[in-house]
Specification:
SpoIIE_N; transmembrane; alpha+beta; 16 strands; five-stranded antiparallel β-sheet
Length: about 800
């Protein structure tokens, strides 16, 4: 009973913990969103920053922060400018009346000069730093004259320093204030933008100078907290940079803080280096830096004070929610959060692109269905309705004005209708003139028999021409429907490829790394994209190999043993210098490979042949061999056959199915010209993984497969390319094996031998007599044998392509690595 209760209680407690965690996350999310709205929308952030910047003084008397902040807010957030100005004056009043007076004078002077400059310069953004520079200089000089009877060189120099710093700070605030106040941040921040934000934060912390409790300085605590935060998020480089910038500005506010720059920079460096230990590691880095720099700078006198300040900063850092650090990390390049954010953005773009491609695919599919539906409806039209329409047009031209109209079509309707229908069918079959019996009976029944017979014969000619045209249009619609459907399938496949992500193979990557490194091969990086059987895709980075071929001779054979599959080097980019890295791509070896040999000659030994051929790697484990024979000889025939081959190559490589590709080419060729010039096409597509093959023979001669002593003839009956009437494609399938010879030829070879009655038997006998298995030698021997039968004359364009199918055996055998295979 206790065990049952324990089993029941465990999931309930887990569920309770999960619900509590969700409630806390939801509460924190609502609180942070409301706080963000209150700070940004209500303008509280400008009040806080303005108040502290109003207190910020450097070099004991210089006030370079107040007016640049007010000018930047006035330009970008005009509705918050009043709050910013009042908070600056309020912050200055906590220091002294003179400081608040100078800030007030500078704001008033700035508003006046800005209004005057607006009449001359329209671009207020570009002129703003110069307006602030002039305003600060004038304000400082006027205030000095009011306090003193005469000005010294020192007064002019300090006025120049203050106005120059104000000029620079204006540029910095224009960059940093939008980054802090914007509700939606950019996806990533540049290093310059991060430094601008650091300068703004350091300037704000300058306003904390003088705020202390029992010798614990507020600026020390918050500056170390900021350094801890950025060292933990961005690493040693960001942490040390933030430490240098913050320490430099704080040391300008108080010369006694000069050693503080070293403390912050060193602590940021150590904290960033130890951030692998999470927040505790970063905090330990700050403690070590604080102790070392304090002992070196001021001895052990203030060591406890420094440690207390660091401990308070660490406490603030430890209680900082992970949501805040994660949110900041998303905008700093180089962090995992930023990389995930970028991947999420790329994934979103990919999904949008895939969705658009899906939409286009659906559009093409809908268009295809529309054409196909229309075609089906046309195919099922009522024949009786067509007959009635035909006879109505006949009676309109012959019987409408006849005096016997009432007798024929009212009293004897059925008999008249049967006569007309019989004559129509007999005329269609060209048997009516010989049917004397029907002619006599119809002559007795109709007073205008000859006129009706002539009208029916004439109307039938129009009707047959219309039916032929209608059939051609229907065939064209059907072809367009198939083409649109093919395009839809291609776009659907493209969408699937876009959506497919690289799978996570971390375990397999570690296994491969360990196996290769234990063997003594140094590997920098392994990326596995696919481990599917027959579709392995692995990329590696290795140190400079100096062209010794380690990848092909050692690594690929070891991968073959690990994956239990033949793996070869697909591509390799070697480093150009000894300290670089070589990038190698490995993939599955195909089970079969094809070697081709070609022999061709033009009619009469000319230079231009009407035959064209091509060997096409379709890129999906398939290989195509094609021969096209243009009608006739010479340049025009060469143009037709070459265009057919080029269109075929482009369409097949796009991924469209073979039958649709053939019909598409046929429609293009038939619509391109009205001349009676056509092309034949002999196409073989071989799957290099299993040897299955498809043969599409469009008006071409038979092909032959030589398998040992056996000769297999492959043929199909299809019209040449360019004839659209009732065009269809017969596909012949054949399983090819290792050692087979596939012999394809044009009609100049097949029908070339002289004094031969049966070309099939002659070609089979000659192929069987050939002893060599080299494809080029076979092609040359067949060509030579045909030319010899013609006494050395070439009376037609001749082309023969021989393909040898062999097992694809890698050059290097697999190397045993480990008994434990990767699954």
């Amino acid at each position: 009973m206790e065990k049952v209760e324990r089993r029941l209680m465990e999931p309930i407690s887990d569920l309770g913990m999960a619900k509590t965690h969700q409630v806390v996350n939801r509460f924190f999310h609502r609180f942070s969103s409301k706080l963000q709205v209150f700070l940004l929308h209500k303008g509280l952030v400008y009040v806080l920053i303005g108040f502290l910047l109003g207190r910020a003084i450097i070099l004991s008397e210089v006030l370079p922060f107040a007016l640049p902040f007010f000018g930047a807010v006035l330009l970008m957030k005009k509705d918050k400018a009043l709050l910013a100005g009042l908070s600056l004056i309020a912050g200055g009043s906590t220091v002294s009346f003179e400081v608040s007076l100078i800030i007030t004078m500078s704001i008033i002077g700035f508003l006046v000069i800005k209004r005057l400059s607006a009449y001359v310069f329209k671009d207020q953004l570009k002129i703003l730093p110069f307006v602030i520079f002039g305003t600060v200089a004038i304000t400082r000089i006027v205030y000095s004259l009011a306090m003193k009877s005469s000005l010294t060189l020192y007064d002019y120099m300090m006025a120049g320093v203050e106005s120059g710093l104000s000029f620079i700070l204006t540029l910095i605030f224009l960059q940093s204030i939008p980054l802090i106040s914007a509700r939606k941040y950019k996806q990533s921040l540049k290093v310059e933008e991060i430094i601008c934000i650091m300068i703004l934060l350091a300037s704000v912390m300058t306003g904390l100078v003088g705020v202390s409790y029992q010798n614990l300085q507020a600026e020390h605590i918050f500056s170390r907290y900021i350094v801890l935060l950025f060292a933990f998020i961005g690493g040693s480089s960001i942490g040390s940079t933030v430490g240098v910038v913050t320490g430099l500005i704080l040391s300008l506010a108080n010369v006694g803080n000069l050693y503080h720059m070293s403390l912050l920079a060193f602590s940021g460096l150590l904290g960033g280096l130890l951030r692998e230990g999470q927040k505790i590691g970063t905090a330990i880095g700050l403690l070590i830096g604080s102790v070392l720099i304090s002992l070196y700078g001021q001895g052990s006198a203030d060591l406890m004070t420094t440690l207390l300040e660091s401990m308070i900063a660490i406490l603030l850092f430890l209680i900082t929610p992970k949501a805040i650090t994660g949110r900041l990390a998303r905008h700093i390049p180089g962090t995992n959060e930023h990389a995930q954010e970028q991947q999420q953005y790329v994934r979103k773009i990919r999904d949008v692109t895939a969705h658009r491609v899906d939409q286009f695919s659906q559009v093409f599919h809908a268009l295809s269905e529309s054409f196909a539906t229309f075609y089906d409806k046309e195919e099922t039209d009522d024949e009786q309705r067509e007959t009635d329409l035909f006879l109505s047009s006949i009676t309109e031209s012959t019987c409408q004005h006849c005096f016997k109209k009432e007798k024929c079509w009212v009293e004897n309707f059925d008999k008249t209708y049967d006569f007309m229908q019989t004559i129509m069918h007999e005329t269609k079959q060209h048997t009516y003139q010989n049917n004397i019996k029907v002619k006599k009976e119809f002559a007795r029944h109709c007073s205008k028999a000859n006129k009706v017979e002539e009208a029916i014969e004439q109307e039938i000619n129009y009707f047959q021409a219309n039916q032929k045209l209608k059939k051609e249009v229907q065939e064209s619609r059907r072809l367009v429907a198939e083409q649109l459907l093919g395009v839809s399938h291609v776009m659907e496949d493209l969408s699937k490829e876009i959506k497919r992500e690289r799978e996570n193979h971390f375990v397999q990557e570690e296994q491969i790394l360990d196996a290769l490194q234990n063997f003594g091969i140094e590997i920098v990086n392994v990326d596995i994209y696919s481990l599917d059987q027959g579709n392995v895709d692995i990329e590696m980075s290795i140190p400079f190999c100096n062209g010794h071929g380690e990848c092909e001779k050692i690594i690929a054979p070891m991968l073959s043993d690990i994956l239990e599959e033949s793996v070869i080097v697909k591509s390799e980019e070697c480093a150009n210098y000894p300290n670089g890295y070589c990038h190698v791509s490995f993939g599955s070896a195909k089970k079969f490979r094809i070697e081709t040999g070609v022999a061709h000659a033009a009619k009469g030994g000319g230079l231009v042949s009407g035959d064209s051929y091509s060997m096409i790697d379709l890129g999906v484990g398939k290989y195509a061999v094609a021969i096209s024979d243009g009608m006739g000889n010479g340049v025009r025939a060469h143009f037709e056959s070459n265009e057919t081959i080029k269109l075929l190559q482009k369409i097949l490589q796009s991924g469209i199915e073979e039958k649709v590709a053939i019909k598409t080419i046929n429609s293009i060729l038939s619509l391109r010209t009205t001349d009676e010039i056509f092309s034949t096409l002999d196409l073989a597509i071989v799957d290099l993984q299993d040897g299955s093959s498809k043969f599409l023979k469009i008006g071409s001669t038979p092909s032959f497969v030589k398998r040992g002593d056996k000769i297999i003839q492959i043929q199909a009956s299809n019209l040449p390319m360019g004839i659209i009437d009732e065009f269809d494609v017969d596909v012949v399938g054949e399983k090819l094996k290792a050692g087979d010879l596939l012999i394809m030829m044009s009609d100049g070879i097949f029908e070339g031998p002289k004094h031969v009655e049966n070309y099939d038997l002659w070609m089979k006998r000659k192929i069987n007599e050939i002893k060599t298995t080299d494809p080029q030698e076979v092609a040359d021997l067949i060509m030579e044998e045909v030319i010899r039968t013609r006494s050395g004359k070439i009376e037609d364009d001749m082309t023969v392509v021989v393909s040898s199918i062999e097992h694809n055996t890698p050059k290097w055998a697999s190397i045993p690595v480990t008994k434990k295979k990767i699954g």
